[in-house]
Amino acid sequence: MHLRYGLRSLARTPGFTAVAALTLALGLGINTIVFTLYESVVWKPLAVRSPGEMVRLDGRLAHGQAVDEFSYADYQQIRAESRSFDSVVATSLPQGLLCVLPGGKPEDAEVAQARLVSENYFAALGVKLAAGRAFEEGEPGVVVSHSFWRTRLGGDAAVVGRELTLQGVPVTILGVAAEEFAGTGLPPRSPDLWVPLSLQTRVLPVADWLHDGNVRPLQLLARRRAEVPLERASAEVATLGARLPLIDNQALQLRARAATYFQTDSGEFETFVTISRLLMVAVALILLIGCVNLVNLLMARGAARERELAVRRALGAARWQLIRQLSTESLLLGLAGGASGFLLSTWASAWLSASLIATVHRVTGGMLGLSLDVSPDWRVFAYTALLSAATGIAVGIWPAVRASQVDINAALKGQGSTGGRPIRGRLSRRNLLLTAQVAACLILLAGAGLLFRGVWRSRGTDPGFDARHMLLLGVDPAVVASTPASRAALLHRVVDRLNQLPQIASVAMADRPPFLGHATGDILKDRRDVVSFNKITERYFDTLGIPMVAGRAFTQAEAEAEEPVVVVNEAAAKSFWPGENPLGRRVELGDWTKGIAPHSSYTVIGVAKTVRSTYLSKDDAAAFYFPRPLVTSYNLLLVRTRTAPERALRPAVAALAAIDPSLPARSSVVTLEQGSMEIQRMMAQAPAVVSSALGLLALILAAVGIYGVVSYLVAQRTREIGIRVVLGARPGDLVRMVLREGLTSVAWGAAAGLIGALALSTLLAKLLAAPDVPDLTYGAGAFDAATFLGVLAVLTAVVLAASLLPVRRATRVEPIVALREE
Question: Which end of the chain lies in a sparser environment, N or C, as judged by fewer CB atoms within 10 Å?
Answer without folding.
Answer: N
